[in-house]
Design brief:
CATH class: Alpha Beta
Number of helices: 8
Number of strands: 9
Number of domains: 1
Helix content: 25-40%
Distance between the termini: 102 Å
Structural class: alpha+beta
CATH architecture: 2-Layer Sandwich
């Protein structure tokens, strides 16, 4: 008939599994998109090997965080969140790193530490700040975060979802400081390392109450065959696995971030900060 948009015919004898599937899930409405990027670590490891012995321990995750910070500084459209169905840009490049800490019950639990103005800090400075913040978490000196975590642990399960929604609504939708909750605790991107579990590729869901449009999982760094100048070489490679809010980022914008990440690992001396202290100037000779 002419008034029909699509000519269709009902499927007869629908299989039971498909009936169960349609009864389980609603229509698609999830904005998440996924992507994986392989990074050659040869030059980054060479840069790290030149660090002085007194330098803090540097990880691949911190290098990745620095590269993302540089990308967001160069392309500010990557640094923001969705509010009232509009995009708002943050004025500081802040990232969150998930770390494992021991819960008072004795079990390992995930917590997050935020590093502000990542684009203004070299990798060694970033590593030193993260080490200090992790130590504060493990010794329970981060009182603001500990208080909010304790509050959630004491809540019955059915209230946690409402509490998270409420704090996100106040903190991001209304953009008001929520009492008892750290200010913007996740920044524009959440990073965590799954390589420690032996995983190369893994994806995490977006965290709605964080309003972070990018969640990035760093896989296990290990030797892989790589084509270099037409030859196959074995090099250390790491996979970066991103989950992205498609309302916030499109392919063209993400391509810019990928470009900066690749540039950073191709030229770590220019992007990660000095690996060696600057040489001392020679004393002038007496005439």
């Amino acid at each position: 008939m002419g008034i029909r948009n699509v000519q269709v015919k009902a499927l007869r004898k629908t299989p039971p599994f498909r009936k169960v599937a349609m009864g389980t899930w609603a229509h698609p409405g999830d904005p998440q998109i996924y992507g994986t990027l392989e990074i050659d670590l040869t030059k980054a490891y060479a840069w790290r090997d030149r660090l002085p012995p007194e330098a803090p321990r540097v990880t691949v995750t911190q290098m990745v965080g620095r590269a993302i910070g540089l990308a967001m500084a160069r392309y500010p459209d990557l640094n923001g969140f969705v509010r009232f169905r509009k995009i708002y840009l943050r004025q500081s490049v802040d990232l969150a790193f998930l770390v494992a800490v021991q819960h008072p019950s004795g079990r390992e639990d995930l917590s997050s530490i935020k590093v502000a103005r990542v684009d203004e800090k070299g990798v060694t400075e970033l590593a030193a700040e993260m080490a200090a913040k992790v130590e504060r978490l493990r010794t329970r000196q981060d009182t603001e975060l500990q208080k909010s975590s304790k509050l959630v642990s004491l809540m019955p399960g059915f209230l946690v979802r409402f509490f998270l929604w409420l704090t996100a609504f106040i903190g991001y939708t209304l953009n008001l400081r929520c009492p008892g909750i750290p200010r913007d605790p996740f920044g524009a991107c959440i990073l965590t390392n799954v390589g420690m579990f032996g995983l190369d590729v893994a994806y995490a869901p977006l965290v709605p109450y964080s309003r972070a449009p990018i969640v990035l999982l760093v896989g296990q760094a290990k030797p892989r065959p790589v084509v270099v100048d037409g030859r196959i070489e074995v090099r250390e490679v790491v996979t970066l696995n991103a989950t992205i809010d498609h309302r916030f980022c499109d392919g063209a914008l993400l391509a810019k971030m990928v470009k900066v990440i690749k540039e950073s690992f191709e030229d770590p001396d220019a992007h990660f900060g000095p690996a060696l202290p600057p040489p001392r100037e020679a004393a002038p000779r007496a005439a």
